[in-house]
Amino acid sequence: MRNAAAWQHLQKRGMVQDFSWADSALRYEALYRSI
Questions:
Q1: Which of its termini does the chain have fewer beta carbons within 10 Å around, N or C?
Q2: What is the pLDDT of residue 30?
């Protein structure tokens, strides 16, 4: 990427994302309970 500041911002945004199953598990549980 040519713009170092933009690339650094993109990296930081990616690193603060929550990729754990905690939120997904709650959504799956709610879905299955609604069926």
A1: C
A2: 96
pLDDT in tens, 1-35: 589 999 999 999 999 998 899 899 999 999 999 99
DSSP 8-state secondary structure symbol assigned to residue 20: S
Q: Rounded to whole angstroms, how far apart are CA atoms 33 and 27?
A: 10
Answer for the pair 17, 10: CB distance below 8 angstroms, yes or no. Answer: no
Query: Cα 18 vs. chain centroid, distance in angstroms?
Result: 4
* Cα separation, 32 vs 35, whole angstroms: 5
